[in-house]
Amino acid sequence: MYFEIFNMLEDVHSLSDNQIAIDSINDGRESNQDFNKLVNELDVNAAERAEELQTEESSNNQKYYNNSSHGNEFEELIFMSSLSTWDNDPAILSKISRFTPEMIDLVLKWGPCQPKSNELPNGKFPKEANRCFHESWYYRKLSDGTEHRDWLTYSPSLNKMYCLYCILFGRHAQKAWVTDGFRQFQNGTIALIAHETTSVHVEASLRVKLRESCMPILPIMVEERKKQVAFNREIVRQLVEIIKYLGYHSLSFRGHREQWSNIIKGNFKDLVVLLSTHSPEISLHISNLQLKGRKELSFISWNQQNLLISAISEEICTIIKSEIKLARFFSISIDTTFDVSRKEQVTFILRYINEFGIVCERLIGMKESAYTTGQALFTLFSEVMESNDLDWKKYLVGQSYDGAASMQGKYNGLQTKVREINPQAVFIWCHAHRLDLIITSAVGSCSTAVNLFGNLEKLFVFISCSKRRNSIYREKQTLRYPNSRIRSIKKVETTRWMSQAFALDTVLKTLESILDTLEDVKNVEGQVDYRVGAECNGLIQYLESFIFLLTANVFKKIFDYVEPVSRALQAHNIDILTAIDFLKKSEKNIFNLRCDTIFQDFYDTAKTTAQDLNFEIELNLPTKRQRRVPRQSGETNSDDPINDPVVSYKVNTYFVIIDKVLTELKKRFQDNTIDIAKDLALISPKLIYAMRKELSIPSDAFSSICENYKRFLNKDDILREYIQFIKSNIEITVSEKLPDFLHTTNSSFEEESSCDESNQDENETDNDLTTNTIQYSGSLLIMYKFFSLKGLKSIFPNLYQVIQIGVTLPISSASTERSFSKLKIVKTRLRSTMTQNRLEDLLIISCESDISVQTENVVNNFAKRSSVLSKALSL
C-alpha cells in the first residue's frame, strides 16, 4: 500500500523540497563530523533513494500479504505483547521475520522500549561482566545540546539493546542490533556511535522519518486512490454491459475507422458515446481520452476489448464447469463445419443436468482444425477437456455425432478412440440425422417420388433465379391470398432437416399463385426465349397433373407424422425413452397408412382437389410395352401385368413409399443403445405401474446398463431399491404437455380410424403426434424431477443415479448445428479476419446468453489480465 501511496505523492503533494525530509533526521546533528560527512554524501536524490527503498518494502509487503499466514503473525504479535510486562519489548520484535504495514504502524505507535532503572524489578539494570546498561545512552550529546535516541530500544527480559529502526526497515543490518541483541556494555558508547553512523541505520531512519512526515496526507491520498479505483471500476462495469449486449445479439464491435472525429466509429465505440450522454463517468472518461490520448488508460482499445470479451467468456465457462462438477455425469456432441474464411471449425457441446433438474446443452469451445480424421478430432477433444479441467475419463457417459466416418467409424472413428479409454461413453448416432436419412431414402424410393421433388427443386431454381419472377410470385400471392403472409419457394436440400416437407408445404399452400406466375412468365418471357417457354409448359403440365396432387398428399401425410418427431428430437430436454416412444408412435401411424381404405381416401381427396382447381382428374400413367418373361421349369403361374393405373400406382408407388419408410425406421434405429433403453424403460411410470400389478421383474433387468456403467452402478443394489420403490405405491405423474412448436395444425386430413389390416386393438388409444397434447409416460425426465422434488435421492441413491445417467445420454447433435447457425451470424464476410480466440469467446457469449453473468466477477477477472489493469482496478 505504501508503495502506491508514495507513487501518488508526486501528483498530490510536491516533494521537491527533499531536504525537508533529510532535515527531520539531521536536526541538531551538524556537530557530529562523521554524520555530516555521511549527509554530504547523500545527494539531492536522497529522497528518491528513500522512495526506492519504500518501493522494495511495499513489494515485500505485497508478497507477504499474499501469504495466508500474515494475519496470524499480527495476532501473535498482539498476543505475545499482552503476555510481556513491556508491550514494546524488542525481544518479541526480534523473533518476527517480516512486518506488515499494520504491524509497523503498531510498533511505531508503541515506540522504543526505554525503561528507567527504578522501573525495573531490582531498581537497577542487571550487570553483564561487571558492566550494565546506562539510562544516559537514551540521549546523545551534541554541540548545541542533547538529542533523544528514539531508535534505541532496551529489552528488560534479555538485558540487551536493539535498534528499533533496523528491526523494522534495516536490510543487511548487523544481527547484534536486529535479532541477537547487543550486550557488550563495556563498549556501549562506542558501539552506539558506530551503529548510528552506518549507512544501513541511516537508510532505516530515513524511512521512518519519511513515513512520519507523510502521515498527515496519507488519509487524503488513500481516499483519492479509492475514488479513482471506484471510478475506473464503474467505467469497466458499463463497458461490460455494452459488450454483453453486442455479444448476445451477435453484432460486430469495430468499424472501418474508429477515430473520435469519425461520425461512425463502430458499434462498440458508438454505444460508448451514446452511453456518455447518460453516464457522467463515461463522459468524463471520453473527455480525458480525447485530451490526453494514449497517456490515459482507455479500457476501450481493441486489445482491451479482447480482454473484456475473454473475461466474460471465461466467467460463463466457469459457471458451466461448476454446474458440470456438481452434476458429475455429462455427455458430449461434436461436429465440424466450414466458416466463411474456409476454415474447419469444430464445436464442442456438453450435456448435463443442473441442480434444478434442467437439462442443459452448453457450448464449451469452438476450435479450428486443419484435419478432421478420427485421431485429430480425438486429440482436439482431449485438449478441450484438459483445458476445462473436466474428468471425461471417469464421468463422460455418452457421445453423439453425425454419420461421418471420422466420427462414428468402428476402427478409427472418434467414438472408438474415446471408448478405448472410457468404455462407458456409449455412442448414440444422432436421432435427428437418422430420421432425415429416412426421409431422403423415401424421397428417392421410386420414380414418381423422384419426379415430385425433382420438379419442386426445378421450380425453386426457375423462380428464385430471377428478380422479376420473384416479384410476380409475390404479387400473385397478394391477389390470391390478401390476408395471408407472403411466402417464398423453399429449396429441397439433403443436408437441411425436413427441407422436403417445408418445400412441399409451401407449394401446396400457394399452388394457384405459382400457376399464375408460370402463366405470366410464359406469356411474356416465353415469347422471346423458347427455353423459358418450354420450361414453363413442363412445370405447368406437371403441377396440374393428378399424379402430382396424389403423390404430394401422400408425402404431406407422412411429413405430418414425421416432422413433429424431427422437431422433438432436436429439443435439448428430450431423453432416450421419449425419443424411442415418439419413433414407435410415428412408425405405427405410418404403418396404419398401408391399407386400401386409406389409399382410397387419398385418391378421393386428390380427385376432389383436382375438380375444384379444374385440373386433370384421372390418373393417367404411361403405357409401357408388355415384356414377356419366360416361364421357368415347374412354374405354374404367369406374371400378369397390372393394367389398372390406380392399382399400378398403389402397388408401385404408394406401398413402395410406405414400405421404404418403415424398413428404414427399423434398420436405422437398431443399435447398441436398445439394451440400455430397455433397462431404462423399467423406470418409466408406465412400466412401474405395470410391475406393481404383476409383481414380476425380468431376470435380466438392469443387466446391460450395469455392465456398461459398472464403475458407478451395482445391479444387486439397484434391484433392491427398485423392488422397494415398486412396493412403496407412490403416486407418479405420468403426463406432461409438450411445447406447441412440436405439433402441426395444418393437416389436410381428418384423423382416420385404423383399418382392419393394422391389427390395432380397438380399445387402445391412438397416440397421434399431430394432436396438441402428447402423453409420454416413458419420460425419464419426469422421473428425475419426481425424485428431486420428493426428496427420494437419499432414499434410493442407486436408482436415482440410473435415472440421472439415462437423462444425461444425448439423443441428437442438434445443438452443434445451432452453434453453426450462430457462427454464420458472428463470423461474416466483413468479419472474416477475426482471431480464433475472439471468435470462440463471442460464440460462447452469444450461444449461452441465458447464463447470468456477475459483472463484478468479470471486472475482477479483467483486472488480473495485466499489472496496469490490476493497479487501476484494485486497491
UniProtKB/TrEMBL annotation:
Regions of compositional bias (Acidic residues) in chain numbering: 750-767
Ranges of residues in domain TTF-type: 138-220
GO molecular function: protein dimerization activity
Pfam families per the UniProt record, alphabetical: Dimer_Tnp_hAT (PF05699), DUF4371 (PF14291)
Region (Disordered): 750-770
InterPro entries referenced in this protein's UniProt entry, alphabetically: DUF4371, HATC_C_dom, RNaseH-like_sf, Znf_TTF
Origin superkingdom: Eukaryota
PANTHER family noted in UniProt: OS05G0311600 PROTEIN (PTHR45749:SF37), PTHR45749
Protein name according to UniProt: Zinc finger MYM-type protein 1
Organism: Schizaphis graminum
Gene: ZMYM1_82
